[in-house]
Structures are given as C-alpha cells and as structure tokens.
Prior knowledge:
Elements: H1 6-11, E1 15-20, H2 26-39, E2 43-48, H3 54-58, E3 71-73, E4 80-85, H4 88-99, H5 102-109, H6 112-120, H7 124-137, E5 144-148, H8 152-169, H9 172-177, H10 181-203, H11 205-218, H12 222-235, E6 241-247, H13 251-266, E7 271-279, H14 289-297, H15 302-331, E8 335-340, H16 349-360
Parallel strand pairs: 1-5, 1-6, 2-4, 2-5, 6-7, 7-8
Antiparallel strand pairs: 3-4
Amino acid sequence: MTSEHLGDVIAASTVLISAGSGGVGKTTTAAAIALAGARSGRRVVVVTIDPARRLADALGLGPGGLTDEPQLIDGPWPGELWAAMLDTQATFDALVTRHATPEQADRILANGFYRNMVSSLSGTQEYMATEKLHQLHGDPRFDLVVVDTPPTRNALDVIEAPHTLSRFLDHRLYRMLVTPSRRMGRAVGVATAAFVRTVSKVAGGAVVDDAIEFFRAFEGLEDGFRQRAVEVAALFREETTAFVLVTSPRRDTLEEAAWFAAQLRQRDMVVRGLVVNRVQPRPIDGPADRFRTMSAQHRGTDLAFLCDTLVEQCVAADHERSQLDATVAEVAAVSVTLVPILGTDVHDIGGLEQIARHLVGRA
C-alpha cells in the first residue's frame, strides 16, 4: 500500500506515539514496537498513560506491574527495553520537588487544594503525560520513547495539553491569584471579590483559602511549566516524532482513525504509520469462483464444507480490504502494516515477538 516500512519509521524516530480507538490493540502494538526497537539495538522506553494493567500484562510482568519510574525488562536483545506507567501524583510531586525550593515544595505538597487538584482536576493527567514525555525524551538513558496513549479523544487532549496550560497561565484570574500578597488584597477586592464570595458559598471558605495559598506558593514555577509546555508542543511536530495510528478493520475504528489523522493534520502533525490489527487473511490469490463450483458439485461432503469456509474467508478479506483502502487514502500514512488475526491474546514477550515480526518483518 505504501513504500516505507514501519521498521524504517521506528529507526528514524526518537519519539513514537501510538494512538487509536479503545480495544484495537494499541497497547500491545506500542509494546511490540518498543521490543522491535530494542531488537535493533536501541535503548527504548515504552510508557503508558492508561492506568490499566494492559502494558504490564503484555510484557508478562507479575503482580508488581509497572510504576512511574522506568523498569528495565530483561531479554535477549542487543538494545535495552524499559517500561513505565504514568502516575499523575508521582510525576507532579517530582516536578514540584525538582523545580521548587525545599520550603516552597513543602508548602505546595502539603496544600489541600494541590492534593485535590492532582487527583481529580480535569486535564491534570493529560498535562502530566506531556511532562513525563518531556522528562523521558531528555533522559540520556533512552534514545527512543514509545508512548501508549488513551483512546483517541483523550489522546487529543494530551496533544492539546501544552496549549491548555499556557492559556491557563496567561489567564487574568490566574495572574491575580499569583500576585504577591501585598497586591493580592486589592486585586481580589476590586476585580474578583464577587467571584471569591460565590465560590466560597459553594465550596467553602477553606477550599478557597487553600486555592489562593496554592497559587501563591506556586509563584515562580509557572515560567518553567510554560517553557516545558512550549518545548513539548514543538516536540509533537519534530521530524523525529512519529504518530502511528492503530486500528482494526471495523468500520467504526477505521472512521475514528481517519478522524484522528485529520485532527493531526490540522495541527501540522503527520501520521507516519498505520497499523491495522486483526485483519482477516485471504487464503488464496485470485477469484474464489472455482471453489464455489466445487462446493456445489460435492454438496454435503467435507470437501464442500472446506470450500465454503475458504470462500467465506475470501469474501470477508475482500470486504475488509475495500474498507481499508478508503481509510488508507484518508489517513495518508507513510507506512501501512496489516497484522492478521492471531490464535491467542498477547500476554508475554513471546507473543510480543510474534507481533513485532508482523510489524517490522523480523524478530
């Protein structure tokens, strides 16, 4: 379908982002891509933003699973394979500890508003995912970062997170809240007193006090967050960053892949690869008419049953391929890879090896 091989995309990338609908094998594909990179001699870390255990299961890890800190996976490959799972709390705490003064960090980490924000505020996980990407991309231990994203709608939130943070930091209300206390009273009294009173009635005065105290304690850190947001936004558009869309032959997942590719194009990002999992193999080349004839001639026999099965597989494969052709044209991916239906689910390194062979054509 296209000239470039997914192995070439992997070799040319420093960041590879696996995206797609839920349930299409996105996590398994990300893990197999990371394994293929390690097989080629690269130092790869695969990180999942999804809190489920799917990446740990695909890597055959035990009950301990994965943590926010990358874990080295042992195996017979010349490179290195590392894996991690985003922990929003741990990532945010580490950022505060790393970039704030000890006294400032203690104030922030002990703040009730901060603890609630990290655990429940919409968008926090998505932004921390970009901070984690920034951290891993700058880590000298790794030369390829593979990111397993949530389903496409949430993955788009991850891509938009740096811009969302920048808009928040530039918002007038935020600038008022981080104004030093000697100017804070007048700012609130003149411009936001009504807002603060309303929120206090709904959420309670203690919550508002914690929020104001948090933003005051946060003062001075926003420039670092803003700079990293700019760098991650640029990283998404780098030539060495590859978006690989993962889908299945189902119409809904193909439409989702085409929609996501269009969203990326609007943001000047390019789909470097399209992986279609669970494709029905076509058992023969050419028309299946002779097997229909053979089935009719031997009706009621085992031979007729085998012929009917073969014809059904050909029809299903041809139907899938017709849908795929339209999606491939819409996605305009540099590389297109079809992974056939496998007999079992992937739950260990051996299963990932099998997927990796289909993805890059070698173990």
